[in-house]
Amino acid sequence: MSEVVKLSQSTGARERGGKPGGEALLPRPQHEFPFNAQHPNALAIYCSDGRFTRAVEMLAEEALEHTRLDTLTIPGGPGTLSLQSGGYQECEHMRRAASFLITGHHIETVILVAHEGCGWYREKMGFYPPDTVRERQVADLRDTAQWVQQKHPNTELHLFYAHSEEDTLHFERIHASPGA
Ligand SMILES: [Zn+2]
């Protein structure tokens, strides 16, 4: 019986730790940043490759005036939403995830970025010349854009292909249809 009382007192002390006057019982957070509870209205779908993470955020801010983004990052980026290159299950999974964000977070702008030297494409197409891989990546960007447009007709789309020259990264705009 005394053990039960002891346990509940100790739990109570921990609970009080989160309330005013009890903060000293919990370690203070080491890192604090501003938080905006409102969801961004732009979604960027791109490769997990960390060489591009910050650059895609900068692109969204500078070229499209989106300072905050929802992101869907996975090796291969937009290519995984295209049945031309993604496997059926992978494609379905990624499309569901994209639709979840677009619908649930009221996304109005979708940014699709492919990049040169992508390991996901190299694994699938490493034996093809770089130009052929690039053509496939551009075709996948357009295919994914077409899917987004059909499924979510009110979204605005921006397609880019990133390539580097020495220590500079260039984002080339890709038109959603080849003839545009
Ligand atoms: Zn990649």
How is the topology of this model organized?
Blueprint: H1 2-16, E1 42-46, H2 53-64, E2 70-73, H3 88-104, E3 109-115, H4 119-125, H5 130-151, E4 156-165, E5 168-174
Parallel strand pairs: 1-2, 1-3, 3-4
Antiparallel strand pairs: 4-5
Zinc ion (ZN) binds next to helix 4.
Descriptive labels:
180 residues; alpha/beta; Beta-carbonic Anhydrase, Chain A; 2 domains; five-stranded mixed beta sheet; binds zinc ion
Brief synopsis:
It is built from 5 helices and 5 strands.
Written account of the structure:
- The protein is of the alpha/beta class and 180 residues long.
- The protein folds into two domains: 1-32, no CATH class; 38-174, Beta-carbonic Anhydrase, Chain A (3-Layer(aba) Sandwich).
- The protein is 41% helix and 18% strand.
- It contains five helices and five strands, in the order αβαβαβααββ.
- It has a five-stranded mixed β-sheet, with helices on both faces.
- Strand 1 (42-46), helix 2 and strand 2 (70-73) form a beta-alpha-beta unit.
- The protein is globular and about 60 Å long.
- The model is unreliable at 1-18 (pLDDT under 50).
- The structure holds zinc ion (ZN).
- Zinc ion binds next to helix 4.
Number of strands: 5
- Intertermini distance: 79 Å
* Neighbour order of strands in the largest sheet: 2-1-3-4-5
Give the uncertain stretches in residue-range form.
Answer: 1-18
**CA gyration radius, whole angstroms:** 22 Å
**What is the assembly state of the chains in this entry?**
single chain
The CATH topology name of the largest domain reads: Beta-carbonic Anhydrase, Chain A
Structural shape? globular
Largest sheet: 5 strands, mixed
Q: Helix share of residues?
A: 40-55%
Beta-strand fraction estimate: 15-25%
CATH architecture of the largest domain: 3-Layer(aba) Sandwich
Content-based structural category: alpha/beta
How many independent structural domains? 2
Name the CATH superfamily classification of the largest domain. Answer: Carbonic anhydrase
**Mean pLDDT across all residues, rounded?**
89
